[in-house]
């Protein structure tokens, strides 16, 4: 017996958190009964329907690394009709993004239908290094780069120690490589804004051991078996 939202995620319906929302919205039936409460456990013999569609036969698990362009929202669908990252994936794929990059941020994004791994990688207690290339509107002072590394006070608390260095600099702009391991909302942009600078462009170039080598903007590739195993190993402490 497993929790309903976990089973739904394993069938590729959506991430585990999204599945919880789908249940709360009354869109799920188990053996013909609408379920809206968390904690319900189901067995392989139970009949599960989502939006009137029976889910069965666990799909083949897919794992993709996408180089997200600017202008795409990181959701499976968008009420405002904007382009989503799934528009870049084959229409026959039933997958979803792991975590978020805001619409004006480009770079490395994981896409999967493995709800269990997605849950682990986005769990608040999971920490992994994420590296960003940030271009700002003028040269940043070295003492401010040092403060980026030590921690910046934001509205929702002090950021954890990070890694930062200037890759390029001039009077009109500055390129900073910043590595963090937290997941605060729009964290990198807010860290830069704290010093009064404007972000011209923001790109995630690494996620732990994964990078964008060989993947052009707007394209994606499948993760190798060894890479999937490494991700699970990183997240193995999350239940």
UniProtKB/TrEMBL annotation:
<dbReference type="GO" id="GO:0120159">
    <property type="term" value="F:rRNA pseudouridine synthase activity"/>
</dbReference>
<dbReference type="GO" id="GO:0000455">
    <property type="term" value="P:enzyme-directed rRNA pseudouridine synthesis"/>
</dbReference>
<dbReference type="InterPro" id="IPR036986">
    <property type="entry name" value="S4_RNA-bd_sf"/>
</dbReference>
<keyword id="KW-0694">RNA-binding</keyword>
<dbReference type="InterPro" id="IPR000748">
    <property type="entry name" value="PsdUridine_synth_RsuA/RluB/E/F"/>
</dbReference>
<dbReference type="GO" id="GO:0003723">
    <property type="term" value="F:RNA binding"/>
</dbReference>
<dbReference type="InterPro" id="IPR050343">
    <property type="entry name" value="RsuA_PseudoU_synthase"/>
</dbReference>
<feature type="domain" description="RNA-binding S4">
    <location>
        <begin position="2"/>
        <end position="65"/>
    </location>
</feature>
<dbReference type="InterPro" id="IPR006145">
    <property type="entry name" value="PsdUridine_synth_RsuA/RluA"/>
</dbReference>
<dbReference type="InterPro" id="IPR020103">
    <property type="entry name" value="PsdUridine_synth_cat_dom_sf"/>
</dbReference>
<dbReference type="InterPro" id="IPR002942">
    <property type="entry name" value="S4_RNA-bd"/>
</dbReference>
<dbReference type="InterPro" id="IPR020094">
    <property type="entry name" value="TruA/RsuA/RluB/E/F_N"/>
</dbReference>
<dbReference type="Pfam" id="PF00849">
    <property type="entry name" value="PseudoU_synth_2"/>
</dbReference>
<comment type="similarity">
    <text>Belongs to the pseudouridine synthase RsuA family.</text>
</comment>
<dbReference type="InterPro" id="IPR018496">
    <property type="entry name" value="PsdUridine_synth_RsuA/RluB_CS"/>
</dbReference>
<protein>
    <recommendedName>
        <fullName>Pseudouridine synthase</fullName>
        <ecNumber>5.4.99.-</ecNumber>
    </recommendedName>
</protein>
<dbReference type="InterPro" id="IPR042092">
    <property type="entry name" value="PsdUridine_s_RsuA/RluB/E/F_cat"/>
</dbReference>
<dbReference type="Pfam" id="PF01479">
    <property type="entry name" value="S4"/>
</dbReference>
<keyword id="KW-0413">Isomerase</keyword>
<dbReference type="GO" id="GO:0005829">
    <property type="term" value="C:cytosol"/>
</dbReference>
């Amino acid at each position: 017996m497993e929790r309903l939202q976990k089973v739904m995620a394993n069938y590729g319906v959506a991430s585990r958190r999204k599945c919880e929302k789908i249940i709360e919205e009354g869109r799920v039936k188990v053996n013909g009964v609408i379920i809206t409460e968390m904690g319900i456990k189901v067995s392989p013999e139970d009949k599960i329907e989502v939006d009137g569609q029976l889910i069965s036969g666990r799909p083949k698990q897919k794992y993709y690394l996408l180089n997200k362009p600017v202008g795409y929202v990181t959701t499976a669908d968008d009420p405002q009709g904007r382009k989503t990252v799934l528009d870049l994936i084959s229409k026959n794929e039933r997958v979803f993004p792991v975590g978020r990059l805001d619409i004006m941020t480009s770079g490395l994004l994981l896409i999967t239908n493995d709800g269990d791994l997605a849950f682990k990688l986005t769990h608040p207690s999971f920490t992994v290094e994420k590296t960003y290339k940030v271009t700002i509107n003028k040269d940043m002072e070295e003492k401010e780069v040092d403060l980026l590394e030590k921690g910046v006070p934001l509205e929702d608390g002090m950021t954890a120690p990070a890694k930062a260095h200037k890759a390029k600099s001039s009077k009109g702009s500055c390129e900073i490589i910043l590595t963090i391991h937290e997941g605060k909302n729009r964290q990198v942009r807010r860290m830069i804004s704290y010093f009064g600078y404007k972000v011209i462009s923001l790109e995630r170039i690494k996620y732990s051991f994964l990078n964008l080598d060989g993947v052009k903007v707007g394209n994606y590739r499948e993760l190798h078996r060894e890479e999937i195993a490494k991700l699970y190993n990183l997240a193995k402490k999350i239940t």
